[in-house]
Design goal:
This protein is of the alpha+beta class and 343 residues long. It has 7 helices and 17 strands. It has 2 domains: 171 residues, Cyclic phosphodiesterase (Cyclic Phosphodiesterase, Chain: A, Alpha-Beta Complex), CATH 3.90.1140.10; 147 residues, Gcn5-related N-acetyltransferase (GNAT) (Aminopeptidase, 3-Layer(aba) Sandwich). The two termini are 45 Å apart.
Length: 343
Amino acid sequence: MTAGRGSAPAGGPRRAAPATRRRLLVAMTVAGDAAREIDGLRRALGGSGLGRIDPHVTLVPPVNVREEDLVDVLRLVRGVAAADPAEVVLGPARTFAPRTPVVYLEVGGDTARIADLRRRLSQPPLVPGVARPERPFVPHVTIGGRVDRARIAGALAMLDEFRLPVSLATVVLCEQDVAAPRHPWHVIADVALGSGATVGRGGRELVFVGSTILDPETAEWAQATPGEEPPGPEKDEAAGARFVLVAYAGGRPVGAVVGSVAGATVEVHRIRLDAGRRGEGIGGQLVAAAERAAAGRGCTRVVFAATADGPVERFLAHRGYVREAVFAGDSRDPRVTLGRSVR
């Protein structure tokens, strides 16, 4: 998609406006307590990235991608979902000085998996079609950018014994907001490593990908696809970790469940099925995949929201789900929740 056409004098040649481009990067993020600990180090060193981007290991450095190539990028990122997480140890601190005054945490452990992910992702449109000379890949987590050179030696000495075991379990696609102060990076797509699974044969393969958000392509599809809504608007802001599982066929979304994890329960607030693919068993496979994903996260129950006595409730009842609660709300059709135990 282009930004439009430029004007030209009458009778003269028309000049096409420059194509819209998005500045993207791909990384493996550090999560939870480990991320908070690293942010403490970043704060102590005056890290320029603090508040602009979460602690991470860069897989594909910033690159400008044409708007019309974004879907190809999203599919490239989804393609690594079946890879296992990388179990690594961060530390000790190292520096790229004197080349650049950056202090970072060295990455040890399963670096071969990180390098493999980088190789799989480093292809067009995420990298230019023409190869460019580059420095050797050094997996690292930056904790200080533009550090005063007089402080670098002290930082290295202070963190010489620092070791932090972490599991790098998520690959994120980030876009830079070049119009905002300090140009922060925002996650526009993520993939839970180990979530990718392919089922079916003979041109009816479904690929399931777990994440925490709907990427731009899938969000647009979900918005245009009728489906069950949550029993109340507060469910969109449900506490706990977000739970998203999407079924793709031929690279395109055909089914999705969106919810959150509350304790040992996955609460599904939205379900979408492609209208043109109903009757193919996608709904049943999607629910079964959601149950497997929930069990894989240590959960023991899955709960769906549905319209009372509607097709989704009847469908779930056939799969062993039992009505647990009714929400009258302001709607003419009351809403219900249906749950079942999973292993």
